[in-house]
Design goal:
By secondary structure, the protein is of the alpha/beta class. The protein folds into two domains: 5-184 and 368-398, Rossmann fold (3-Layer(aba) Sandwich), CATH 3.40.50; 188-365, 3-Layer(aba) Sandwich (Rossmann fold), CATH 3.40.50. It is 44% helix and 14% strand. The protein has 15 helices and 13 strands. The protein has helices at 19-29, 70-90, 101-115, 125-133, 137-149, 161-171, 187-190, 215-225, 243-252, 267-276, 298-304, 335-346, 349-367, 369-384, 391-398, and strands spanning 5-8, 35-40, 56-59, 95-98, 118-123, 155-158, 178-180, 202-206, 233-237, 259-262, 279-281, 309-312, 327-330. It starts with a strand and ends in a 7-residue tail after the last helix.
Length: 405
């Protein structure tokens, strides 16, 4: 009988909203491995996104990453500490897949050593970068936990090359212990019938309305460029704490007729907005406290709906956008660079068409659910057997896209 993997993931859909939730569920659902999953409770069990919902242990002791209290986190860590040995005693797992943040992953690595089960961690950009840049007590603790425990893990699956570089350059993790498995879309997205009908000079940006996404920078760029680009429009889709601030900028500049902020958008409406937009921009940038992006799945959506993209460097964007191939990667804190990049793409149809064609190829090659699911499966197997990366994975791990315009 083939042994199962145990996935410990406080964040696991439903709802299937947010890049990290889409990412982990797509990895699991497109892998041939069998998983037991430990996660938090949901409002409606009927909406499970995995085919065998009986394999998911959902507990009220497990809290997701959206603003948990310290007490809730402490309860979760204690619960995990005692639950995992009990589950491992009942089921001989071949590996523990740790997707529970720095502290949770460190606990699981410790338990893995105790139980003699190999632990493979899933890591993201912000959770590795913030401990390096932010000197709060919490982040100093996380930095030391990473340095002490992460070297004892059997392997790492990361969403972008930025994460890989953080682990190798700043935390001393061996290159051979890390596989980059890119951000992806759910398989359902690829089965949808497209109705592409581009509106000239229309820009789209999608994401949670938080500072690091840079929506305020994009709005200011559009305000500057209205004098240079005829009928330039911007649609922002998302919810979050910066909504009022963004609306204030729009209203103060009398821009509500060409800059639209939409917070209540269903999947079908979002699809239509993608299909009618001409350029996708996420003005992401790194904050002083180290808060930054990994490899946002919105760039994969842009490729699917035939949009060239502009994204910010100093993060994991380059895993999705190969500069001057399917879009542009720039320093978003430079007003002139952002303005020039938008002008460059919207003003050159042949360049747009080339970016779109290359984006389609990259989407199918690197970001398709079947591709990432197979990569995930192979990565688990190679880490369990201490083998080097081969073929596609070896090449993808070592790719280092240029970021110069």
């Amino acid at each position: 009988m083939t042994k199962k993997c145990l996935l410990v993931s406080p964040d696991f859909p439903p709802p299937l909203i947010g890049g990290s939730l889409v990412y982990i569920s797509t990895l699991v659902n497109n892998s041939q491995d069998s998983f037991d999953i430990v996660s938090g409770v949901t409002k409606n069990r009927k909406d499970e996104v995995i085919e065998s919902p009986d394999k998911i242990l959902r507990s009220s002791f497990i809290v997701d990453s959206s603003n948990p209290t310290r007490f809730e986190l402490l309860k979760m860590y204690i619960y995990i500490f005692f639950l995992i040995p009990f589950m491992a005693f009942r089921t001989p797992y071949k590996a523990i897949i740790a997707n529970s943040g720095v502290i949770g992953n460190s606990i699981l690595i410790f338990l893995g050593k105790l139980l003699k089960i190999k632990v493979i961690c899933i890591a993201y950009g912000e959770e590795l970068n913030a401990p390096l840049k932010n000197k709060t007590v919490k982040n100093i603790l996380k930095k030391n936990l990473i340095k002490f425990f992460y070297k004892k893990a059997s392997g790492f699956i990361v969403v972008c090359h930025f994460c890989k570089n953080l682990l190798t350059n700043n935390f001393g993790i061996e290159n051979n212990k890390i596989d980059v498995v890119a951000s992806c879309l759910s398989l359902q997205k690829f089965s949808e019938e497209l109705n592409i009908s581009k509106k000239k000079n229309s820009i789209l940006s999608v994401g949670r309305l938080i500072e690091r996404k840079g929506f305020h920078l994009l709005i200011m760029s559009v305000l500057r460029l209205r004098q240079k680009i005829e009928n330039l429009t911007l649609t922002i889709v998302g919810q979050g704490p910066k909504r009022k601030n963004l609306l204030k900028i729009i209203h103060e500049n009398n821009a509500s007729d060409f800059i639209l902020l939409q917070t209540e958008v269903d999947d079908e409406k979002l699809k239509q907005i993608y299909e009618t937009s001409e350029l996708f921009v996420l003005a992401n940038h790194e904050l002083k406290n180290g808060d930054t992006e990994g490899c946002p799945s919105v760039f994969s959506e842009a490729m699917l709906y035939e949009l060239p993209s502009i994204g910010g460097k100093y993060a994991g964007v380059e895993t999705a956008i190969i500069n001057n191939e399917n879009g542009l990667v720039i320093d978003m804190k430079s007003e002139s660079d952002l303005d020039k990049a938008i002008l460059k793409i919207l003003g050159n149809k042949s360049l747009r068409d080339n970016f779109i064609l290359n984006g389609k190829k990259k989407l199918l090659r690197d970001h398709h659910p079947h591709v990432v699911g197979k990569q995930f499966e192979k990565s688990i197997e190679r880490f369990l057997n201490d083998k080097p990366a081969e073929d596609f994975q070896k090449k993808f791990n070592s790719s280092t896209p240029s970021i110069n315009i």
